[in-house]
Amino acid sequence: MIQYLGLIISIGVIAIVARLLLKEYFPQTVLLIAGIALLLLSSSVNNNVTPQGQVTEKGLFKILDYIINQFSNTNAGVGLMIMTIGGFVAYMDKIGASEALVRVALKPLGILKKYPNFAAVAIIPIGQLIFICVPSAAGFGLLLMASVFPILVNLGVSRLAAVSIITGCTSFCIGPSSVITASAVQIAQIETLPYFLYSQIPIAIILNVVLMVSYFFVNRYYNEKDKLMPIVVKSIEKTSNEAHWIYALLPILPLILLLSFSGVFTLFPIKLKVETTTAMLFSLFVGMLFELIRTKNIKAVFSSFKVFLDGMGDIFKSVVTLIIVAEIFANGLISMGFMDGLISISQNIGFGAVGIGIIMTIMIFLAALLMGSGNAAFFAFGPLIPNVAAKFGVPSTSILLPMNLSASMGRAISPIAGVLIATANVAGVPVMEIVKRNLIPVLSVLITLLIYHFGLCF
Question: What pLDDT, on the 0 to 100 scale, is given for residue 268?
């Protein structure tokens, strides 16, 4: 009975947290206070704070010591990697490398000029490849609005269809540069590249096919229903500051390094393993060398390093701090018996590992939809999974992988997601119209994910 009481209290706290986040309260503060409240309540009832036993005495000061340890441990590990990714992405955007990657990737679209509907859905696999290298959803969306959007509308694609396709490209947050991937591999205690190659890519290929087919028919239906006429928009004119096409190699250089020096492929006789942080830093210095050759201005190139540092700072205050407070919140839920209650109910109903996996995947999806952030949703519930997986005797990745994917899916249909708001504003279309067009394709891939993954893995 006490176990179920903890579950009920936890659900109540989750509801309050969701309500505050919908009212646009600062998420870090909301999750931190909720986590502290749960830990205090757990401490007073169970005489402990976390299941790992970091804090065994009652009192607020002991909980604050635990929070300090969380900051230290996260910043020394996955936090540094994520900040490096953020700094690298910011630098690539500053020097025009991300834009160059888009230009090169869009070259194959030339053969589809006479088929606008096919050209629109052809953006999805190309966009997915770009999104792997430019993992910021809002940044990616705005980048494609400046480059892909004018091309699509000039091909005869409606504004709403073009924006829905662009935002739909952010439905799968995968790859070594993704902060959700970084968090997932840290939670599961596995290597990044094998998780990307053998877990994310196979299922992402299937889901992308489903997404393309869904968008093709959904946008065609809505275009006929709404009788939207194509609106011609002038393409972005090239400027003298446009980066050379060779710059397109820079955003994918970390992925090349990780593939080349990972042990997965034997491309070189020397045995050398490159971590994600190392690959990002090496690629950053290569980018600075490119800029030195292009500008021949040593002082300006040295000063450009500040862009990388600013990017690290931005990702720390927006993402790393969110990871930390979300882990505190997750530990509060664990301490209150939230997961034990869910597991007990699932076992009584007869769901087992499949049932709890589906519940957690859908919960993450709904949380991302309500919060407008796939990161916040995954960071809040991801740390709960290792204990769950251990109790059912299944690998952590068997539950973490669908949660990883459903988090970004939920964001793609959230009317308060930054990527939807930003792209809708640029295109001059209502956000809810984008949500309407994204809903069926995203739900289609979610259902496909649940059937395929849990049918295959269990």
Answer: 58
